[in-house]
Protein backbone atom coordinates (compact mmCIF):
# COMPACT_ATOMS: atom_id res chain seq x y z
CA UNK A 1 0.00 0.00 0.00
CA UNK A 2 1.44 3.39 -0.98
CA UNK A 3 1.85 6.17 1.52
CA UNK A 4 -0.65 8.23 -0.48
CA UNK A 5 -3.39 5.70 0.29
CA UNK A 6 -2.31 4.75 3.82
CA UNK A 7 -5.13 4.45 6.37
CA UNK A 8 -5.76 7.43 8.60
CA UNK A 9 -4.50 5.54 11.67
CA UNK A 10 -1.04 5.03 10.20
CA UNK A 11 1.78 7.38 11.13
CA UNK A 12 1.92 10.16 8.55
CA UNK A 13 5.28 10.62 6.92
CA UNK A 14 6.05 14.12 5.74
CA UNK A 15 7.02 13.95 2.08
CA UNK A 16 8.65 16.54 -0.11
CA UNK A 17 6.23 18.14 -2.61
CA UNK A 18 7.59 16.30 -5.65
CA UNK A 19 7.27 12.87 -3.99
CA UNK A 20 3.79 13.63 -2.70
CA UNK A 21 2.65 14.74 -6.14
CA UNK A 22 4.03 11.56 -7.71
CA UNK A 23 2.14 9.45 -5.18
CA UNK A 24 -1.06 11.37 -5.85
CA UNK A 25 -0.65 10.74 -9.58
CA UNK A 26 -0.07 7.04 -8.92
CA UNK A 27 -3.27 6.96 -6.87
CA UNK A 28 -5.13 8.88 -9.57
CA UNK A 29 -4.11 6.32 -12.21
CA UNK A 30 -5.11 3.48 -9.90
CA UNK A 31 -8.55 5.01 -9.35
CA UNK A 32 -8.96 5.66 -13.07
CA UNK A 33 -8.58 1.97 -13.86
CA UNK A 34 -12.11 1.26 -12.57
CA UNK A 35 -14.00 4.44 -13.42
CA UNK A 36 -14.55 7.03 -16.13
CA UNK A 37 -12.33 10.09 -16.22
CA UNK A 38 -15.32 12.33 -15.41
CA UNK A 39 -15.82 10.35 -12.20
CA UNK A 40 -12.26 11.02 -11.06
CA UNK A 41 -12.79 14.02 -8.81
CA UNK A 42 -10.59 16.06 -6.51
CA UNK A 43 -12.87 15.07 -3.62
CA UNK A 44 -12.42 11.36 -4.35
CA UNK A 45 -8.65 11.61 -4.56
CA UNK A 46 -8.46 13.70 -1.39
CA UNK A 47 -10.59 11.17 0.47
CA UNK A 48 -8.54 8.19 -0.69
CA UNK A 49 -5.24 9.96 -0.05
CA UNK A 50 -6.33 11.20 3.38
CA UNK A 51 -5.45 14.82 2.65
CA UNK A 52 -7.41 18.05 2.27
CA UNK A 53 -8.93 19.27 -0.98
CA UNK A 54 -6.96 22.48 -0.54
CA UNK A 55 -3.67 20.59 -0.61
CA UNK A 56 -4.70 18.86 -3.83
CA UNK A 57 -5.47 22.21 -5.42
CA UNK A 58 -1.96 23.23 -4.43
CA UNK A 59 -0.55 20.43 -6.59
CA UNK A 60 -3.15 20.61 -9.35
CA UNK A 61 -4.63 24.03 -9.96
CA UNK A 62 -8.06 22.71 -10.90
CA UNK A 63 -9.89 19.54 -11.87
CA UNK A 64 -8.91 19.85 -15.53
CA UNK A 65 -5.22 20.11 -14.71
CA UNK A 66 -5.58 17.12 -12.42
CA UNK A 67 -7.20 15.07 -15.19
CA UNK A 68 -4.53 16.07 -17.67
CA UNK A 69 -1.76 15.09 -15.25
CA UNK A 70 -3.35 11.70 -14.56
CA UNK A 71 -3.85 11.03 -18.27
CA UNK A 72 -0.24 11.95 -18.97
CA UNK A 73 0.91 9.53 -16.25
CA UNK A 74 -1.38 6.77 -17.57
CA UNK A 75 0.00 7.26 -21.07
CA UNK A 76 3.55 7.04 -19.73
CA UNK A 77 2.64 3.83 -17.89
CA UNK A 78 1.26 2.34 -21.10
CA UNK A 79 4.44 3.17 -23.01
CA UNK A 80 6.57 1.68 -20.25
CA UNK A 81 4.61 -1.53 -19.81
CA UNK A 82 4.60 -2.28 -23.55
CA UNK A 83 8.35 -1.74 -23.97
CA UNK A 84 9.71 -4.42 -26.34
CA UNK A 85 11.82 -7.22 -24.94
CA UNK A 86 15.41 -7.53 -26.09
CA UNK A 87 15.31 -11.24 -26.90
CA UNK A 88 13.74 -12.84 -29.95
CA UNK A 89 13.14 -11.77 -33.51
CA UNK A 90 10.98 -8.84 -34.54
CA UNK A 91 7.80 -10.93 -34.70
CA UNK A 92 8.30 -12.34 -31.21
CA UNK A 93 9.00 -8.93 -29.70
CA UNK A 94 5.93 -7.49 -31.38
CA UNK A 95 3.73 -10.25 -29.97
CA UNK A 96 5.07 -9.63 -26.47
CA UNK A 97 4.33 -5.90 -26.75
CA UNK A 98 0.84 -6.57 -28.11
CA UNK A 99 0.18 -9.04 -25.30
CA UNK A 100 1.24 -6.46 -22.72
CA UNK A 101 -0.91 -3.82 -24.39
CA UNK A 102 -3.92 -6.14 -24.31
CA UNK A 103 -3.27 -6.94 -20.64
CA UNK A 104 -3.11 -3.21 -19.88
CA UNK A 105 -6.47 -2.58 -21.54
CA UNK A 106 -8.01 -5.58 -19.78
CA UNK A 107 -6.83 -4.35 -16.38
CA UNK A 108 -7.82 -0.72 -17.02
CA UNK A 109 -10.64 -1.09 -19.51
CA UNK A 110 -13.12 1.44 -18.20
CA UNK A 111 -10.52 4.13 -17.62
CA UNK A 112 -8.75 3.39 -20.90
CA UNK A 113 -11.94 3.78 -22.90
CA UNK A 114 -12.54 7.05 -21.09
CA UNK A 115 -9.04 8.23 -22.07
CA UNK A 116 -9.67 7.42 -25.73
CA UNK A 117 -12.93 9.35 -25.64
CA UNK A 118 -11.23 12.31 -23.96
CA UNK A 119 -8.56 12.29 -26.67
CA UNK A 120 -11.30 12.54 -29.28
CA UNK A 121 -13.02 15.37 -27.44
CA UNK A 122 -12.60 19.12 -27.47
CA UNK A 123 -9.65 19.38 -25.08
CA UNK A 124 -6.50 19.98 -27.16
CA UNK A 125 -4.19 18.98 -24.30
CA UNK A 126 -5.84 15.56 -24.03
CA UNK A 127 -5.50 15.07 -27.78
CA UNK A 128 -1.86 16.10 -27.66
CA UNK A 129 -1.06 13.69 -24.82
CA UNK A 130 -2.72 10.80 -26.58
CA UNK A 131 -1.19 11.54 -29.97
CA UNK A 132 2.24 11.76 -28.39
CA UNK A 133 1.71 8.35 -26.76
CA UNK A 134 0.46 6.79 -29.99
CA UNK A 135 3.41 8.22 -31.90
CA UNK A 136 5.83 6.88 -29.29
CA UNK A 137 4.32 3.39 -29.55
CA UNK A 138 4.44 3.25 -33.34
CA UNK A 139 7.81 4.98 -33.75
CA UNK A 140 9.24 2.42 -31.36
CA UNK A 141 8.38 -0.33 -33.83
CA UNK A 142 10.76 1.19 -36.36
CA UNK A 143 13.45 1.94 -33.80
CA UNK A 144 13.32 -1.60 -32.44
CA UNK A 145 13.33 -3.30 -35.83
CA UNK A 146 16.02 -1.15 -37.38
CA UNK A 147 16.74 -1.04 -41.09
CA UNK A 148 17.85 -4.67 -41.20
CA UNK A 149 14.81 -5.95 -39.32
CA UNK A 150 12.45 -4.08 -41.62
CA UNK A 151 14.28 -5.41 -44.67
CA UNK A 152 13.57 -8.98 -43.53
CA UNK A 153 9.89 -8.21 -44.10
CA UNK A 154 10.52 -6.36 -47.34
CA UNK A 155 9.78 -3.02 -45.71
CA UNK A 156 11.64 0.27 -46.06
CA UNK A 157 11.14 3.04 -43.53
CA UNK A 158 9.31 5.78 -45.44
CA UNK A 159 6.74 8.43 -44.43
CA UNK A 160 4.08 6.37 -46.25
CA UNK A 161 4.92 3.23 -44.26
CA UNK A 162 4.81 5.18 -40.99
CA UNK A 163 1.45 6.64 -42.02
CA UNK A 164 0.03 3.17 -42.62
CA UNK A 165 1.49 1.84 -39.36
CA UNK A 166 -0.18 4.69 -37.48
CA UNK A 167 -3.44 3.61 -39.09
CA UNK A 168 -2.77 0.04 -37.92
CA UNK A 169 -2.34 1.34 -34.37
CA UNK A 170 -5.81 2.92 -34.52
CA UNK A 171 -7.21 -0.41 -35.74
CA UNK A 172 -5.50 -2.28 -32.88
CA UNK A 173 -6.88 0.16 -30.35
CA UNK A 174 -10.45 -0.24 -31.59
CA UNK A 175 -10.31 -4.02 -31.99
CA UNK A 176 -8.75 -4.58 -28.56
CA UNK A 177 -11.30 -2.37 -26.80
CA UNK A 178 -14.15 -4.18 -28.53
CA UNK A 179 -12.60 -7.63 -27.93
CA UNK A 180 -12.31 -6.98 -24.19
CA UNK A 181 -16.02 -6.10 -24.15
CA UNK A 182 -17.01 -9.04 -26.36
CA UNK A 183 -14.40 -11.54 -27.66
CA UNK A 184 -16.83 -12.69 -30.38
CA UNK A 185 -15.41 -16.20 -30.15
CA UNK A 186 -11.85 -15.03 -30.92
CA UNK A 187 -9.21 -16.61 -28.67
CA UNK A 188 -6.62 -14.34 -27.10
CA UNK A 189 -3.65 -15.92 -28.91
CA UNK A 190 -5.48 -15.78 -32.23
CA UNK A 191 -6.22 -12.10 -31.70
CA UNK A 192 -2.57 -11.31 -31.05
CA UNK A 193 -1.37 -13.32 -34.05
CA UNK A 194 -3.93 -11.66 -36.33
CA UNK A 195 -3.01 -8.14 -35.21
CA UNK A 196 0.66 -8.93 -35.76
CA UNK A 197 0.00 -10.36 -39.21
CA UNK A 198 -2.08 -7.32 -40.17
CA UNK A 199 0.83 -5.05 -39.31
CA UNK A 200 3.11 -6.92 -41.70
CA UNK A 201 0.53 -6.72 -44.47
CA UNK A 202 -0.14 -3.05 -43.86
CA UNK A 203 3.56 -2.18 -43.90
CA UNK A 204 4.29 -3.96 -47.18
CA UNK A 205 1.12 -2.54 -48.75
CA UNK A 206 2.13 1.08 -48.26
CA UNK A 207 2.59 2.80 -51.63
CA UNK A 208 6.12 3.62 -52.79
CA UNK A 209 7.46 7.12 -52.58
CA UNK A 210 6.84 8.86 -55.91
CA UNK A 211 8.89 11.82 -57.10
CA UNK A 212 7.06 15.12 -56.99
CA UNK A 213 6.12 16.91 -60.17
Automatic annotation (TrEMBL):
Binding region for DNA: 41-60
What InterPro entries does the record tag this protein with?
DesT_TetR_C (IPR054129), Homeodomain-like_sf (IPR009057), HTH-type_TetR-like_transc_reg (IPR050109), HTH_TetR (IPR001647)
Q: Which residues form the HTH tetR-type domain?
A: 18-78
Which Gene3D superfamilies does this UniProt record tie to the protein? Answer: Tetracycline Repressor, domain 2
Q: What keywords were assigned to this record?
A: DNA-binding, Transcription, Transcription regulation
User: Could you name the domain of life of the organism this protein comes from?
Assistant: Bacteria
Acyltransferase keyword on record:
no
Q: What is an example of a GO molecular function annotated in this UniProt entry?
A: DNA-binding transcription factor activity
Keyword flag DNA-binding: yes
Name of the protein described by the UniProt record: TetR/AcrR family transcriptional regulator
